[in-house]
Amino acid sequence: MQNELKSAIRFNDFVSYFGARGVLAMAWWMGAVHADRIRQDQNSFPFLQIVGTAGSGKSLLLGYLQKLNGQTPYSNFLGYSTPAGRARSFASAGQRIVICEEQGELGQSIDWDELKPLFSSGSVSLRSGNSLGDEVTFRGALVITANQPLECSDAVTSRMVTVDLSAHDAHTPRIRAEAIGTVNPTEASAFGIEIAQSGEWICSSLKAFLPAYQGQLTRKYGADLNGRTALNCAQMICLVDLLCNLLAVPQHLQLETRKLVHDIAFFDTIPY
User: Fold this and answer.
1) What is residue 189's three-state secondary structure?
2) Averaged pLDDT for residues 204-221
3) How many helices (H) and strands (E) does the chain have?
4) Separation CA 28–CA 203 (nearest Å)
5) Which listed site, 25, 63, 218, 264, has its alpha carbon 20 to 30 Å from 165?
6) Cα separations (Å) of 77 from 99, 153, 258?
7) pLDDT tens column, 125-155
C-alpha cells in the first residue's frame, strides 16, 4: 500500500524537486484535512505560510498538494477584498483549505490580526452593514502565499508555520517541474482518500504524542520559546512522523524535515 501511494503521487519526484520543505508542507496538508477536529481537540491548528520569490515553485507546490485531496483551487486575494468579504469567504469554505494570496502594494492594506481567530476557535463574525451579524465557525485551514514573509505582529507570526522556498539552504530541484505538474489528479486522489479515512489515527496520535513533543521542545529551547510556537512545532513534528510512517519515508529525509521544524522553534527564541 505504501509503495502504491508513493507511486500514485510521484512522491520521489516531489522530493527530488522540493526536498524536506515539500515534505513539511505535505505533512501540514495532511493535518489540514482534519483541522476542524484538531482544533476541537487541541484548541489550535497553525496557518501555513509559503514564501518564495517569483519562480521559486509556490504555485507548483500548491497545485500539486491540491491534487492530493481532489480540491479545486479556493483562493482569496486578501488585498482585493474587504474584511466582510474575507469573513464570508472563510465562512463558506466548509472544511476546505483556503489559499490566501498576499498581493503587496497592488492590494489594500490588511490588518493581519483579523485572521487570529481562525487559528483557535475558528469563529468568524459576519457583518451586516455597521452591525455584527451571525457568528459562524471556520472549519477549514489557512494557507498564505507571499513573495516575502508577512510584515505582521508577533501574535500572527506565532500562529504560522513558514516554508521558505527561497531560503539560502533550500533544496535545489533535481528534476524538471513538469514531473510534478503533470501528476494525474485521479491517481493522486488515492492519497486524499487514505488521509480522509485515517482521521481517527491522525487525531488520536496527535493527542497521544503531542505532550511529549511539546515538552521536549520546551526543555530544549527554554523559557524564550513562545508557548504557541512550541505547540505548532509539536503538532508539525507529529504530523511529519505520521506522514513518514504512512509513506515509508527514509529516515534521513524524516530527520531533515524534523530539523526544519526545530529551526522554526530555535529562531523563535532569538531576540530581534
Assistant:
1) helix
2) 95
3) 11, 7
4) 13
5) 218
6) 8, 20, 31
7) 665 555 556 677 888 899 999 888 888 888 9
In 3D, which of 193, 197, 241 has the Cα closest to residue 216?
241
| Residue 221 identity | Y
Q: Is the distance from CB of 76 to CB of 103 less than 8 angstroms?
A: no
Q: Which residue has the cell 520569490?
A: 53
Question: What DSSP string describes 143-184?
Answer: EEEESS-----HHHHTTEEEEETTSTTPPPP-S-THHHHT--
131-137 long-range Cβ contacts below 8 angstroms, 24+ apart: 136/91, 137/36
The answer to whether 185 and 169 are in contact (CB under 8 A) is: no
CA distances from 8 to 180, 184, 241 (A): 12, 8, 20
Over residues 16-59, the pLDDT tens digits come to 999 999 999 999 999 999 999 999 999 999 999 999 998 899 99
Q: How would you label 177-207 residue by residue, b for 16+ Cβ within 10 Å and e otherwise?
A: eebbeebeeeebbbbbebbeebeeebbebbe
> In this structure, are residues 18 and 57 in contact, taking their beta carbons and an 8 Å threshold?
yes
CA distances 186 to 5, 99, 125, 168, 177, Å, are: 12, 22, 37, 35, 19
